[in-house]
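Q: For a teaching session next week I want to show students how multiple molecules come together into a single three-dimensional assembly. I've collected the sequence lines for a complex. Could you give me the predicted structure tokens for the whole thing so I can convert them for display?
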Amino acid sequence: MDRAGPAATPAAPPARAVGPLLWLRERLFSSWSNAALTLLALWLVYQLVSTLFTWGVLHATWQGRDGGDCREGGACWPFVGAWFGQFLYGRYPDAERWRVNLTYALAAAGLVPLMIPQVPGKLWSSAYTLVVVPVLAVILLAGGMLGLRHVPTDLWGGLLVTLVISSTGIAAAFPIGIFLALGRRSRMPIVRWLSVGFIEIVRGVPLITVLFMASVMLPLFLPEGWTIDKLVRALIMVALFSAAYLAEVIRGGLQAIPRGQFEAADALGLSYPQKVGLIVLPQALKLVIPGIVGSLIALFKDTSLVLIIGIYDLLGMAQVASSAPAWLSPSTPMTAYVVAGAIFWLFCFGMSRYSQMLERRLAAGGQRAVTKAMD
Amino acid sequence: MAVSTGGPPRTRVDLKGLIYRPEVRQIAWQVALLLALVFAFGWVVQNVAANLRRQNIASGFEFLDRISGFDVAQSLIEYSNVSTYGRAFWVGLLNTLLVAVLGIVFATLLGFVIGIARLSSNWLIAKLAAAYVEIVRNIPLLLQLFFWYFAVLKNLPAPRQSYVLPGGAYFNVRGLYLPAPVLQPGFELVLGALVAGIVGTIGLRWWTRRRQLLTGRRLPLLWPSIGLLVGLPLMVHLAAGAPMTLDYPELAGFNFRGGIAVQPELIALLLGLAIYTASFIAEIVRAGILGVPKGQTEAAQALGLSRGQALRLVIVPQATRIVIPPLTNQYLNLTKNSSLAVAIGYPDFVSVFAGTVLNQTGQAVEVILMTMGVYLGISLVTSLFMNWFNRRMALVER
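A: Of course. Below is the structure for the complete assembly, covering every listed component.
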């Protein structure tokens, strides 16, 4: 620079490179091929939006009493109006639906303060959510005590069953998954081989075969006269199935913890439960939040499989509704699946967005090295 | 520990100290665990035996040699209702493998396109791909299968009003009807030409690589290969008097005759599996490409490689290493998910074997264990193959 001789007059700064037109040119029309791609994409968007609009609004039926009124080829909205209650509660008696709503409200009262990071008192809210709510939920939903009418589980259905299976599954799979992950890294050979065997066998088979096992094999395992409720059987299997996947995710977190942390805990004279509970797990779980949430979303979606063994969750209800004789029409199945799909999507998308928020928040806490368990 | 001066002599067993020794505790824990498991297992076996006796269900695998008495809608091998249960086992297994292979091919193609589209510099394309991923992977696969089968394919027109596809194919509520190739004598020549083309291409590849190492000159490889692989068999085919003809499906009465009929169940299953799995593969591809350090792209540019060359020679080989392990997982997931076929009535392994055969024989324990064993076997073979492939692709370091 110094050797350039007498200082040249500084050139004027380049024109400000901002503005919507420039953005358009750079991001959409930077070259001929890019412009062609943009036009193709625009055509695609137009096709999608116009198809959706025609189906959901223009050709949709808004009023009607049965499937005979839905002949326009578009969505059959009155069908949704007539069946929405069943979508949410299944065949749960109308007069008792307040019990389901109350359960939701009680669970929300625990979950909301737990999920918002700024709210203090996490210990209390988690104790309430994990201990008090399940007990109250069982009393409220099943009834048969405290003057509440007994509602057998084969009347439960729709979103209620989806939420019951997924939340119980999550609550049960999480501790089992932690034990399996610790077992897989244990120095005791028998514990290690049992954990590895369980995890790999479960991960190697489809959930359907496990559910079939619950419905046809499990009754054979029990002595004569013993029966387990069908919903409970499905619950156990879903929980064990998810636990194997969660275990692998958690193992990834355990492997990312430096040896020094274990050694430091030993040096402090902590017992094994203290070492794991106070030093290792808090760090390991934080590292694998994305993987854990991924497993939870998978579990939530997998609950729909229970319809194959005759439990009517949200998708099962949509299936029943779309073949109900009163509302038979060419557009009924499509309407039912779109509505059920939208509800599933809201839950899954919400979970994934929440985990991203949590991840960013925790990332601010320090450097992270995420190593995923992939094998 | 070492401060005890003149403590108890080593020969005496310190019983009180023994229970505090970690090794002793570990052994005690494991023995207890093993005992509990053996006890539980024995209890279960006893119950199963008693229950089977009471319900008069035979045990063992003799049922595999008995006549099945049911038909299967789609079979890749010869099968009828006088075949054995063992034969039905293979029919189901082959149907599952067919779906898995086709699904993996389609899902990979679609997934790669969408994964690359997500990284496009074109804002609209990137957003569209992102929307695809976010919508598709957050809806249960079973729901998507139902959607394709009950809401879309079951609403197609009847055979008389079929959609006519280019190339003499028809699409209607009964499925997809494709022209079938019919082989006349003389086709062996075309096959021979194809084999010669493949061998020639491999030889050409080897020779150009050698030439490049020796002289530094890159010889054209793409067009000669295409000529060898496509042109040669085509020319032989024409010269031999076109020994392969097409059998076109034709409308006869209420249905089509001739050609290859693809059942709507198979189409729905493939659509659902490919579209769903592609959304996961797209994310894997994106992560793989983003996982290659930016310096690699810049270094390739600095060396004067074109964009295509940089992608082919620098980025993709490195991204492949990141992509293979999670991609393997997705292939296994797709194979396991193909068992959802049972819900839409495609005769896959679970539907034929764990469904019909189990219902007819009642031998739940044997059938379920065999079903699980088959899927475990598929998982194992796929993992072994992909691990081998992964090792082959792995970076060779000093």
